[in-house]
Write a structure and sequence with these properties.
heterodimer; A: about 1050 residues; alpha+beta; Aldehyde Oxidoreductase, domain 3; Aldehyde Oxidoreductase, domain 4; 4 domains; seven-stranded antiparallel sheet; 27 helices; about 25% helix; B: about 280 residues; Uridine Diphospho-n-acetylenolpyruvylglucosamine Reductase, domain 2; Uridine Diphospho-n-acetylenolpyruvylglucosamine Reductase, domain 3; Enolase-like, domain 1; five-stranded antiparallel sheet; four-stranded antiparallel sheet; globular
């Protein structure tokens, strides 16, 4: 640990005085949490015992991105033995109301979908049973009749004038559109030597805790309300949102937090939605209900970082000095604007000018809804989205002005003597020394050596780049920042909101032991360790004499709306408040001890387990005895001292006011700083980006525990690396979610994460009790642009999107590829059927699947030769008794109108098998030349629909059948099996046409055996063209018969 | 993520296992290491009526060198093979492939026969079996049949195994003194499914290159005595013929690039090895 450049902080009575003895604070103490965690005695949410009679919930979720719910039939689900209740949207109005929203818009979000679903994974019903297995059995049998609607999958699509609207009552997918202007940006741009502009996108991603959501909810009746335990970790302003949604006063919603947590990284704020849902499920079931989120639910349905489309412009002078910035930002908050969104925008609002002295700023913020999971808090919240734009722009400024990036930084950094510095949009940046951080990159980070390594690598023809990123890291959020989204008139109407109240209680027991209670809901950071360090120093005792309880209980503990574990508020706010409470109690002890020690209270020192006045050390009292005695002999308390040894302190940062008339807002109480530098090498054959060196310089004010601080930095760095190179929640153009496992959503492991070189400097905050600031989110903000800038430097590229996967990087490098030779058996996929066949295909767009815009829907084109004439093939398709044999895995088929059927189909690929209730339709009939075959099905593992044009052409005595198919698969199968979908579709098509040819041949040429029909293996290469076997290439006997038998089709 | 109810049978012998399989019909599934099957069950992507657990069948738990093959029984784990001190001499290609197969904890549970039966198109063990010209022994109540790897893998997750057959044994040919072997893989992270994996065998009668992760099953190509630009051209043709598709992990073009790059690398590495 480096301790650089400490500054004396202004002192007040509660501050740790410079030079005062802190044997524990500031030291790399081991975590007191770890012994129980490492020996299997942790109490995570799922470990906690439940009341006898507790039932277990499974949630039925939408497989569709956008659909109307026509009806829900829960009769079969409810009939499963052991299923005790089914909660659906119809139950909600009696006991709840929609969650409150941060903007003025008629957007209703209930705990369950009522009339529409707006994202894959949206809860539609809850099945409550004796155990989770039975609950899932019931969930599989719940029948929801959906009418699919056109989805809105991207920001670009959502803002089109003719876009489908998610919330009809709002009338638009843009639910907030605000512009802000600070200083005089127009003049600055007009007078600039140059304007540098960049358009960037930040993807949907997350930080994925090992432990998913856990909720245990208990409806205790009208008198007592709800008692719920969950790993929702705040902000506890959302407790109010929960209580309002449940239509109970706050005291009738008791929320308790578990002792241990398997991580949150912000995302567990979204558990609040499920806490409400399980409260309702408990009320319906008449019993306590427990729900443990599984990984698929977590990835698909809980939350995500907001994806953003930004256009950023800088007005620059030729020397690199930036005189104005302009942002045009569009945030995709998903299917609903769920509290605290649109906070992704406004957490960063005051500090949009970053680490730079830029007086002029223009901002346009639009909040957009699309058919995706509601966005929310993810570690770094709001920062990665801003800095990928701002810090990429810094790199572009250096490139376009032909300056060393470090020069651009040096010329724009806020100067060290300007703190506290009021940024253009209102942030009061408390302290810092950015120039010193830059010097440290040279002195300790080895910047010059890195430049030499780059030169040497490039001389050898290798792809090597250097990137930088400087970020201001806000901590301790202003509870009023979100109101910046409202125009000032509406803000005035709603009443002022500001501050960031933290609370802590310190007490002493009758044996002199010390206990501490915080309203902090930690997620593994080591809050108990740090609190014990803080308190041990105040009382001059050992940390193991202190118990810290973090099982935050809204009915018993001191708390306020800002309580919880988010916005890096622990070190600055919570630990500081613990210090304040401990000092209050120590001062009381001093008043009690003063008569015994025959000195003034102010002279008493607590040190080394003793209480004494330095003037007469021989009179010292043992701490335990002195601290216990007031319990036993209150009558001996000095005049004016009340009984009781328990002090609660509340603290808020005075600098946190409400947004002002000019929309300026000090969004956070403290602002740390990180300055990163990295060198990357890129493999020009594989596109793999390898970190050669990563240096991260942090200034988070006073460091409370250097070991924990470095752990936070390493963790954030790993997640930032993941965001830069791997992590993305991917959606199909149909809004299907396709990253439902950790094989699809790649998180870096220890094998992929190098050790960063960490450098600290400490410029204490004048605004927090201990001078500390948050530091756990910095690398989530700095590492993605730092790596992106290094890749941009290595490849000389400007436009690209994260994550920089090898495939994408290889595209940036360029793949020089020779076409297949003439000798190759490769054939490109046939052109679309209509063009090739020249057949008369009826017009009109009967296709139920629109051609995919991005080409990501499953599509297949091909040809097969069937050993039967076109009329025979056509007849089979129009004959239900034959069709039942042709459709792969068809268990039953019944007519449902002209050329429409309802079918019960089992689709099987390898060991995977799913039973779909399907509709099959034939249209565009042009006998015997062409028709369209369409199908749509729903199963417990999701939905599928496909449509294909089939053309038939006589060839010899048989038929050349061409097909041009597109299909969409959504729900669970798409979420966990995206790697397999293409192959699975091929197999199903294979089965379909194999059977078609066989059945037609059997009819058209009586007596012909099935082996007379050959179907090429459609999966065989890319050609898709197959011809009847010659005598010398006999088909593989029995294979298809066996496969079909496996599918349940008897041939 | 809880499976539907199923029956569980733990036979004591291979004979009993195939007998149970014949009785239970198509809805039975063989459980060995469970590293793919259990995930599929928990996701309810399959609902077998009975699991026949062969993991503790003594007569299926073997790894033996029969002079021609390394024969691996259905209950033998990947770890059982990987940790054989002789493996690098017996089947050097396997020794090179194992570190790419997920993580050691999974190899300690997963079985070789299970991976072959599952036929994931990105899996390393089917790829190595195909490259070496190995065999699969299928056993049913009616007897045994031996299927060449080339015939066994038929599509994504699709094999020549019939519903009543157990993959009883997999046979990896032992190294030949006149052949050299190399395995190369590219994946998103250490231990992930291969975006592209290749196995090269350089033999007196020419070069064989097998590729996994690109097509819907491992695919093998013989290149004869081609060298230099002719070999590069032939590998490029092979890359195209594999019919790579775009997906979220990699574009088709990127996969072809990997086939060319890893293919050339593996062949060069094999050639550079000393003959044994």
């Amino acid at each position: 640990m480096e301790m650089k450049h400490p500054q004396a902080a202004p002192s007040d009575s509660a501050r740790v005085e410079p030079g005062s003895e802190t044997p524990f604070l500031g030291r790399p103490m081991q975590r007191i949490e770890d012994v129980s965690l490492l020996t299997g005695r942790g109490q995570y949410g799922d470990d906690v015992g439940v009341k006898p009679g507790t039932l277990y919930a499974a949630i039925v979720r939408s497989p569709h991105a956008h659909a109307r719910i026509r009806s829900i039939d829960s009769a079969r689900a409810a009939s499963v033995a052991g299923v005790r209740a089914v909660l659906t949207g119809a139950d909600l109005a009696a006991w709840s109301k929609p969650f409150v929203v941060g903007v003025k818009a008629q957007m209703e979000m209930w705990a369950l979908a009522l009339d529409k679903v707006r994202y894959v994974g949206e809860p539609v019903a809850v099945v409550v049973a004796d155990n989770r297995y039975l609950a899932e059995d019931g969930a599989d049998l719940l029948v929801v009749d959906y009418e699919q609607l056109e989805p809105v999958a991207t920001i670009d699509d959502a803002i089109l004038d003719d876009a489908p609207v998610l919330h009809e009552a709002v009338g638009s997918n843009v639910v907030s559109d605000r512009t802000f202007r600070y200083g005089d940006p127009e003049t600055a741009f007009a007078q600039a030597d140059k304007t540098v502009e960049l358009t960037v996108r930040y993807p949907r991603n997350s930080c994925t805790p090992i432990e998913c959501a856990v909720v245990i909810a208990d409806w205790l009746g009208e008198e007592e309300g709800y008692d719920v335990a969950s790993n929702f970790m705040g902000p506890f302003s959302l407790h109010t949102v929960m209580a309002l949604a449940l239509r109970v006063p706050g005291h009738k919603l008791r929320h308790r937090y578990f002792r241990d947590s398997g991580g949150s990284f912000g995302v567990k704020h979204a558990v609040f939605q499920y806490a409400v849902l399980m409260c309702l499920a408990s009320r319906k079931a008449g019993a306590p209900v427990k729900w443990t989120e599984d990984r698929l639910e977590h990835l698909a349905g809980l939350t995500s970082a907001t994806n953003r489309l930004s256009t950023i412009r800088a007005a620059v002078q030729n020397d690199g000095r930036i005189t104005a910035l302009a942002y045009d930002q569009l945030d995709d908050c998903g299917g609903y604007l769920r509290a605290p969104e649109p906070a992704t925008f406004y957490r960063m609002h005051g500090v949009l000018t970053g680490a730079y002295a830029i007086p002029n700023l223009a901002v346009r913020n639009r909040v957009v809804l699309t058919n995706k999971t509601p966005a929310g808090l993810v570690r770094g919240f709001g920062g990665p989205q801003v800095y990928i734009a701002l810090e990429r722009l810094m790199q572009r400024i250096a490139v376009e002005l032909d300056l060393d990036p470090l020069e651009v930084y040096r010329r724009n950094f806020i100067s060290a003597d300007a703190f506290p510095y009021r940024a253009a949009a209102g942030a009061l940046i408390d302290s810092g020394n950015y120039q010193r951080a830059l010097e440290l990159l040279h002195e300790e980070g080895g910047a010059a050596e890195l430049y030499r390594r780059r030169a040497a690598a490039r001389a050898e023809g290798r792809l090597y780049g250097i990137g930088f990123a400087a970020i201001v890291e806000p901590s301790i959020s202003n509870m009023g920042y979100i109101t910046t989204v409202l125009p000032k008139e509406l803000r005035a109407k709603a009443g002022p909101k500001n501050g960031a109240i933290a609370s802590a209680t310190v007490g002493i027991d009758p044996l002199g032991g010390i206990n501490v209670v915080i309203a902090s809901a930690p997620a593994g950071q080591g809050h108990r360790t740090v609190c014990s360090q803080v308190v041990a120093d105040v009382f001059g005792v050992q940390p193991d004499q202190i118990a810290v309880n973090v099982e935050f209980d809204t009915q018993k503990d001191a708390w306020s709306v800002a309580a919880g574990n988010y916005s890096s508020r622990f070190a600055g706010a919570v630990a500081g408040t613990v210090h304040l409470a401990a000092v209050q109690l120590r001062d009381k002890l001093a008043r009690i001890a003063a008569p015994q020690l025959d000195c003034a209270a102010a002279d008493i020192v607590f040190k080394g387990g003793k209480v004494f006045a330095p003037a007469s050390p021989d009179k010292s009292l043992p701490f335990l005895r002195m601290a216990a005695s007031p319990h036993w002999a209150p009558a001996l308390l000095p005049d004016g001292v009340t009984p009781g040894l328990r002090e609660t302190a509340f603290w808020t940062a005075e600098s946190l006011g409400a947004p002002d008339e000019q929309d300026r807002v000090n969004t956070s109480a403290a602002y740390g700083f990180a300055f990163d530098m990295c060198g990357v090498e890129i493999d020009r054959n594989t596109g793999r980006v390898t970190i050669d060196k990563y240096v991260t310089t942090h200034d988070a004010g006073k460091i409370l525990n250097p070991a924990l601080a470095d752990g936070q930095i390493r963790g954030a760095f790993a997640q930032g690396l993941g965001a830069a190179l791997m992590e993305e929640f991917r959606y199909g153009d149909d809004g299907s979610f396709q990253s439902g496992t950790f094989a699809d959503y790649l998180v870096p492991t220890t094998c992929e994460v190098p050790e960063p070189h960490i450098i600290h400097l400490e410029t204490p905050s004048p605004f927090t009790p201990l001078g500390a600031k948050g530091l756990g989110e910095g690398n989530n903000m700095s590492t993605p642009p730092c790596i992106a800038n290094a890749v941009a430097d290595a490849l000389g590229v400007k436009d690209f999107t994260l994550p920089l996967t090898p495939s994408k990087v290889m595209d940036l490098i360029g793949i020089d590829e020779a076409p297949p030779s003439k000798a190759s058996t490769f054939k490109a996929e046939p052109a679309p059927v209509v063009a090739v066949a020249g057949a008369a295909v009826p017009g009109g767009a009967a296709a139920e699947v629109k051609p995919s815009k991005g080409g990501k829907a499953l599509a297949a084109r091909g040809e097969v030769v069937l050993d039967a004439p076109p009329q025979a093939v056509f007849d089979v398709l129009l004959d239900p008794s034959a069709l039942v044999q042709v459709i792969p895995g068809c268990n039953a088929l019944e007519p449902a109108g002209e050329n429409r059927y309802k079918a019960d189909v089992t689709v099987g690929v390898g060991l995977i098998k799913a039973r779909y209730q399907a509709e099959v339709a034939l249209s565009e009939l042009d006998p015997p030349r062409s028709l369209r075959l369409a199908g749509a099905g729903l199963s417990s593992v999701g939905s599928a629909r496909g449509s294909g044009l089939v053309t038939l052409e006589a060839q010899g005595g048989g038929t050349l059948l061409r097909y041009d198919y597109s299909a969409e698969v959504s729900g669970k199968v798409a979420a966990v099996g995206s790697r397999m979908l293409e192959g699975a579709a091929k197999i199903v098509l294979n089965q379909l046409f194999e059977q078609l040819g066989k059945t037609a041949a059997a009819r058209g040429k009586p007596g012909k055996t099935r082996d007379g029909v050959e179907i090429g293996n459609l999966a065989d290469g890319a050609t898709g063209t197959h011809h009847a076997a010659s005598a010398s290439e006999a088909p593989k006997p029995g294979l298809w018969r066996r496969l079909l038998a496996l599918m349940g089709v008897k041939s | 993520m809880k499976p539907q109810a199923f029956d569980y049978a733990r036979p004591e012998s291979a004979e009993e296992a195939v007998s149970l399989l014949a009785e239970a019909g198509d809805d039975a599934r063989i459980l060995a290491g469970g590293q793919s099957l259990m995930a599929v069950l928990n996701l309810r992507l399959a609902q077998p009526s009975v699991l026949i657990d062969v993991s503790r069948v003594p007569d299926l738990n073997y790894v033996k060198n029969d002079g021609k093959h390394l024969a691996v029984g259905a209950a033998a784990t990947q770890g059982n093979v990987e940790w054989r001190p002789e493996l690098a001499r017996e089947v050097p290609l396997l020794a090179q492939a194992f570190p790419h197969i997920s993580h050691f904890q999974i190899r300690n549970r997963g079985t070789v026969c299970g991976s072959i039966a599952h036929a994931d198109p990105s899996a390393e063990l089917p790829l190595a079996l195909l490259a070496l010209g190995g065999q699969v022994v299928l056993r049913s109540r009616h007897g045994r049949r031996v299927v060449d790897a080339d015939d066994f893998f038929q599509g994504m997750l699709m094999t020549a195994r019939a519903g009543d057959e157990l993959v009883e044994e997999v046979r990896y040919p032992l190294a030949r003194s006149d052949e050299r072997y190399a395995f190369e893989e590219f994946s998103g992270r250490h231990g992930d499914f291969a975006v592209c994996a290749v196995a090269a065998v350089v033999a007196p009668d020419g070069i064989r290159l097998a590729v996994g992760g690109v097509s819907d099953r491992p695919r093998l190509q013989h290149f004869g005595q081609l060298a230099g630009a002719d070999l590069d051209g032939a590998i490029n043709d092979f890359a195209w013929e594999l019919g790579a598709k775009d997906d979220h992990h990699a574009s088709a073009k990127f996969r072809r690039q990997l086939v060319r790059h890893l293919g050339r690398t593996a062949i060069e590495r094999a050639r550079a090895q000393e003959s044994t």
